[in-house]
Design a protein that fits this description.
18 helices, five-stranded parallel beta sheet, alpha/beta, Phosphorylase Kinase, domain 1, six-stranded antiparallel beta sheet, elongated, 3 domains, about 15% strand
């Protein structure tokens, strides 16, 4: 596989590349300025002024060949085109490196073309998502914006039906197994046990029909392919993907959820399960994904973790490899999903409490959050933060949304993902609809607090899917006697205490 082969570089290639870098550092590419350089597996990068200049290494690997001038030119053009298709605003041009009569190398000058570079806009490295994650700056709003950006990116890609077969993922597993073994044998390393590869094979056999069904339905696209924290940044305030996998169309042409899975896995590895859960739920709502597709996340995320594991073994980084191995095994460990309903009048904090609970419930990226407010607006074609038509709150429409919520819950639970149902559940019919779900027993909690607290919370809402205002909150009345399965919870406390209280009552199904 990609990382199996040794790098082949001639001495002449190295000398030429070094000379080009020295000259570009001296000139700043365009004009003298303060510069920085670093290198990746495949490129040298020069940061100069407001530009980043990428020079391909003259390498030949099992998975990529940059060994000739024409091949590097083609690779630069492919990188420019692929990233622009992902909507990245960072990519500006592909320019020749020319050698002047005096021997100096310049960008797009006179003389012989000796190499090619990709020219990009430079961005603040502190705005790269791995830096933001480390700084604790990946807040809920940014997680949602990131999911929205990925939804838009995937929606703009053309479906491909000739790739993304289950057999393609099977080959990835086979190649990873060999890569890990070769790397360990070369360096005399002892590989951690147990290995996730047998479990991946078993899980693939389980989801094989779903993978093929989604391929036929157009869910396979030529995706970003390398969508992790280091390949996302904030540029001019916008979530911006970059550095997509441009050198192998086959590896990048996958189910869109395999693309998303890299980011979800990376967020878990970074210790950010809350962000992973928010990205997952926002993506599912925005892309209107089938709940049944949640069954793919354990496999896709574990496969992404196993890729990182094999690369780490190949590089001799056993501690890093072991972290990814343990994550892959955790993702592949089946946990029984739970079905939780959070009800209460407007302003009791249902959605906030549900969001706090969701990351720790069984599911590859936590629980699926199902909000009646979101389903209602989806049915009307209304943006989540927009106002639904008043007719959407007519009794027959409320009953319809209750049935839809129950249907979504059944499907998600059957897929092995926990569900948190979030609605007022004032009407007995809405609560009865939950009872129709058979995939998991219902555990229901009714939040209650004072009118003053509810009014304060409602007045502080910004950009929320709920249409309830203070007037609505004043009109609402408690439903009186609740069914025995509903547990009343004091919602006048801080959210973390409410969530911890509910987690304890769930009997250890949450990790809170």
């Amino acid at each position: 596989m990609a990382w199996q082969a040794a790098v082949h570089e001639t001495q002449a290639d190295n000398v030429m590349t070094s000379a080009i870098l020295d000259d570009l550092v001296e000139t700043g590419g365009y004009e003298p300025c303060e510069t920085e350089t670093f290198e990746t597996h495949l490129s040298h990068v020069l940061l100069a002024g407001d530009r980043a200049i990428k020079l391909k290494k003259p390498v030949k690997l099992a998975f990529v060949d940059f060994s000739t001038l024409e091949k590097r030119r083609s690779a630069c053009l492919a990188e420019l085109e692929a990233n622009r298709k992902m909507g990245s605003s960072l990519y500006l041009d592909v320019l020749p490196v020319t050698q002047a009569a005096g021997g100096k190398h310049v960008l797009d000058g006179g003389g012989e073309t000796v190499d090619w570079v990709v020219v990009m806009k430079r961005f603040d490295s502190a705005k790269r998502f791995d830096s933001l994650a480390e700084a604790g700056a990946l807040d809920p709003a940014l997680a949602w914006r990131t999911a929205d950006r990925i939804v838009d990116m995937h929606a703009g890609l053309e479906p491909v039906t000739t790739a993304g077969h289950a057999a393609d993922y099977r080959k990835v597993i086979r190649d990873l197994r060999q890569t890990e073994a070769d790397g360990a044998a070369r360096d005399g390393l002892s590989i951690g046990e147990p290995s996730p590869f047998d479990l991946l094979d078993t899980e693939l056999a389980h989801v094989d029909p779903l993978i093929e069904q989604r391929r036929r339905a157009g869910k396979v696209r030529r995706t970003h392919g390398d969508l992790h924290l280091r390949n996302l940044c904030l540029y001019e305030g916008e979530v911006t993907p970059f550095d997509c996998l441009e050198f192998d169309e086959r590896l990048a042409t996958t189910d869109v959820l395999y693309d998303l899975a890299f980011l979800l896995m990376d967020l878990l590895q970074a210790g950010l399960p809350e962000a992973a859960n928010r990205v997952m739920n926002r993506y599912w709502d925005g892309a209107q994904e089938d709940e049944a597709a949640l069954a793919l996340l354990p496999f896709f995320m574990a496969l992404r973790a196993s890729v990182r594991m094999a690369v780490a073994v190949e590089g001799g980084a056993l501690a890093e490899a072991d972290r990814y191995r343990r994550l892959a095994l955790t993702l592949l460990k089946r946990r029984k999903p739970v079905f939780v309903a959070i009800g209460g009048l407007s302003g009791t904090g249902k959605s906030t409490v549900a969001a706090a609970l969701a990351p720790d419930l069984p599911g590859a990226a936590g629980a699926r959050l199902l909000r009646s407010d979101v389903l209602r607006k989806r049915g009307q074609g209304t943006p989540e933060a927009g106002c639904a038509d008043r007719r959407a709150y007519a009794p027959e429409q409320r009953a319809k949304v209750s049935r839809q919520l129950a249907g979504h819950a059944e499907e998600a639970l059957t897929a092995g993902c926990s569900v948190l149902a979030d609605a007022t559940f004032q009407e007995a019919a809405a609560r009865e609809a939950l009872e129709s779900v058979s995939a998991a027993p219902l555990q229901a909690f009714w939040l209650e607090t004072s009118l003053a607290t509810r009014l304060e919370r409602v007045s502080n809402r910004r950009g929320d899917a709920s249409d309830a205002d203070e007037a609505v909150a004043r009109r609402q009345e408690e439903p009186g006697q609740l069914e025995p399965e509903w547990c009343r919870i004091d919602a006048g406390r801080p959210v973390d205490r409410i969530a911890a209280d509910i987690a304890r009552r769930l009997g250890g199904t949450a990790d809170t």
